[in-house]
Amino acid sequence: MYYFYYIWGDILNIGEKIRRLRRVNNLTQDELANRCDLTKGFISQIERNLTSPSINTLIDILEALGTDISNFFNEKIDEKIVFSKEDIYENHYEDYGYLISWLIPNAQKNEMEPILVTISGKSSTKEDQPHEGEEFGYILKGKINLILGNQIYKIKSGESFYFKSNKSHYIDNPYNKPAIILWVSTPPSF
């Protein structure tokens, strides 16, 4: 069983953070245990997430590591910057004839969400109802029609679109060849 704490929308691995702090302070598990009046085995179990310390014990451990509970939980974790093909999640909407590739995993937690839409010829995406936000698209391949409210915009490869999402909208590909669109929405809505 693994013990994690849920803090302000993030899951925090307590054991891993304690292990990292102990190593930064050049302490062995035995030295940390002695400073906190605990056993080496208990420190080992905490670091491997086999047990969870009480708040008072956690405070004692953190003091021995030269920090406090406020700084411990507010530490910024390095965000992933570069994403590979293995990170992409795809969902094929066979009934409609298009594929959405989420380029950034868990982008819904960010302020914008980039996707790649591959739409077969003679197909349309599902209609998206009005919502807060803005959307941007760049046509990488083919040509499409953007239906925004009652307006139809014909867009071809190398062109882009940008609109506020306050009208119903969808993409139509009435042509025979597929189209590929880099699409970014803010806030995430896909």
TrEMBL record:
Residues 18-72 form the HTH cro/C1-type domain. Keywords: DNA-binding. One of its GO terms (molecular function) is DNA-binding transcription factor activity. Pfam families: Cupin_2, HTH_3. The keyword Zinc does not apply. One of its GO terms (cellular component) is cytosol. The keyword Lipid metabolism does not apply. PANTHER family: HTH-TYPE TRANSCRIPTIONAL REGULATOR, TRANSCRIPTIONAL REGULATOR. This is Transcriptional regulator, XRE family with cupin sensor. The lineage of its organism: Bacteria, Bacillati, Bacillota, Clostridia, Peptostreptococcales.
